[in-house]
Amino acid sequence: MMSNVLEFCQNMKIPIESFSIRMEGVRDVNPSRISEINAIIDLNGDVPEERRATLMRVAKGCRIHNTLTRPPKIDVSLTIHEAKLI
Fold this sequence. Notes:
alpha+beta, GMP Synthetase, Chain A, domain 3, two-stranded antiparallel sheet, elongated
């Protein structure tokens, strides 16, 4: 997310003085998981009003956001190697 936003700002010649992302989440217990994730982006710079909506789309277009909003197929396998007796 951070690299997408910074690259966009560089390409659009938008000067950014500082940048941070704070992640917050909500834990669920049944099943045990993170049920909600909030990414709070904090930019200190001169971002023109007409670029802000695009900047939000760029942030939401990152690989991590896409993976979490469209979860991948996950397979789990188990291989057991029995100990050899000498």
